[in-house]
Design brief:
Blueprint lengths: L2 H7 L6 E3 L4 H11 L3 E5 L5 E6 H11 L19 E2 L4 H11 L3 E5 L5 E6 H26 L1
Parallel strand pairs: 1-2, 4-5
Antiparallel strand pairs: 2-3, 5-6
Bound molecules: adenosine monophosphate.
Adenosine monophosphate binds next to strand 3, helix 3 and strand 5.
């Protein structure tokens, strides 16, 4: 199973925010879209960073409510780990486990942002794969018997 198989099953929308937007705006967008992380892009659409709900928790823990008026750029992660659509889901899981993050942007061969995969997408695809394997095995056993 590859990253492209996960992308095919989900909405193509990549929810992004500007680095100058406030953390309060980021929280509203996360809540409205029911997601856990936002891609931060520059004016040309290039990937500048990622800001997740965990960064918002850190901001509030460090600066209390005044953090909500701070720009996304103050708390986003700039060194973003990415993957390609031909990477395997196993490689992606390894990357998330090692890096301790739950979101990975997907880049095309020419470095365009083409999607984002969350740990929830990975778990969903793993469960579907397991169910498919079990069905195949059951069919095999009943055909053999
Ligand atoms: P998450 O588990 O995705 O909510 O993110 C946990 C922390 O890792 C936050 O500080 C995020 O900004 C950061 N983070 C999330 N995704 C990535 C990624 N793909 N590469 C690097 N850092 C990330």
């Amino acid at each position: 199973m590859q990253v492209k198989h996960i992308l095919r099953e989900k909405s193509p929308e990549i929810v992004s925010i500007a680095a100058e937007a406030t953390l309060s705006e980021a929280a509203r967008l996360l809540w409205r879209k029911r997601i856990g992380a936002l891609i931060v892009r520059d004016g040309q659409g290039a990937l500048l960073g990622i800001v997740s709900e965990r960064d918002l928790v850190r901001a509030v823990a460090e600066e209390s409510v005044t953090a909500l008026a701070r720009p996304v750029s103050a708390y986003m992660t700039r060194d973003v780990a990415t993957c390609g659509e031909n990477d395997t889901v196993d490689e992606l899981m390894e990357m998330m486990t090692q890096g301790r993050f739950r979101h990975v942007p997907v880049l095309s061969a020419d470095d365009r942002l083409i999607g984002i995969v969350s740990i929830g997408d990975v778990v969903k695809s793993r469960i579907e794969e397991t169910v498919r394997e079990a069905t195949t095995l059951r069919q095999y056993i009943s055909a053999a018997g």
